Amino acid sequence: MKYNLMYDYAEGAHPDILHALERTNFVQQLGYGDDFYCGEAAQIIKSLLENEDAEVHFVSGGTHANLIVLSSSLRPYESVIAASTGHISIHEAGAIESSGHKINEVFVPDGKLTREKIQEVIEVHTDEHCVIPKLVYISNATELGNIYNKNEIELLSEFCRSRGLLFYMDGARLGSSIMSAYQDLKMSDLCELLDAFYIGGTKNGALLGEAIVIVNNDLKRNFRHSIKQRGGLLAKGRVIGLQFSEMFRKGLFFELAAHANKMADLLAVGIAQKGYRFYTVPQTNMLFPVFREKEILKMEENYLFYRWKKLDADETVIRLVTSWATDEKMILKFINEL
Amino acid sequence: MKYNLMYDYAEGAHPDILHALERTNFVQQLGYGDDFYCGEAAQIIKSLLENEDAEVHFVSGGTHANLIVLSSSLRPYESVIAASTGHISIHEAGAIESSGHKINEVFVPDGKLTREKIQEVIEVHTDEHCVIPKLVYISNATELGNIYNKNEIELLSEFCRSRGLLFYMDGARLGSSIMSAYQDLKMSDLCELLDAFYIGGTKNGALLGEAIVIVNNDLKRNFRHSIKQRGGLLAKGRVIGLQFSEMFRKGLFFELAAHANKMADLLAVGIAQKGYRFYTVPQTNMLFPVFREKEILKMEENYLFYRWKKLDADETVIRLVTSWATDEKMILKFINEL
Amino acid sequence: MKYNLMYDYAEGAHPDILHALERTNFVQQLGYGDDFYCGEAAQIIKSLLENEDAEVHFVSGGTHANLIVLSSSLRPYESVIAASTGHISIHEAGAIESSGHKINEVFVPDGKLTREKIQEVIEVHTDEHCVIPKLVYISNATELGNIYNKNEIELLSEFCRSRGLLFYMDGARLGSSIMSAYQDLKMSDLCELLDAFYIGGTKNGALLGEAIVIVNNDLKRNFRHSIKQRGGLLAKGRVIGLQFSEMFRKGLFFELAAHANKMADLLAVGIAQKGYRFYTVPQTNMLFPVFREKEILKMEENYLFYRWKKLDADETVIRLVTSWATDEKMILKFINEL
Amino acid sequence: MKYNLMYDYAEGAHPDILHALERTNFVQQLGYGDDFYCGEAAQIIKSLLENEDAEVHFVSGGTHANLIVLSSSLRPYESVIAASTGHISIHEAGAIESSGHKINEVFVPDGKLTREKIQEVIEVHTDEHCVIPKLVYISNATELGNIYNKNEIELLSEFCRSRGLLFYMDGARLGSSIMSAYQDLKMSDLCELLDAFYIGGTKNGALLGEAIVIVNNDLKRNFRHSIKQRGGLLAKGRVIGLQFSEMFRKGLFFELAAHANKMADLLAVGIAQKGYRFYTVPQTNMLFPVFREKEILKMEENYLFYRWKKLDADETVIRLVTSWATDEKMILKFINEL
Question: Could you say which of A76, A97, A129 has the minimum Cβ distance to residue D101?
Answer without folding.
Answer: A97
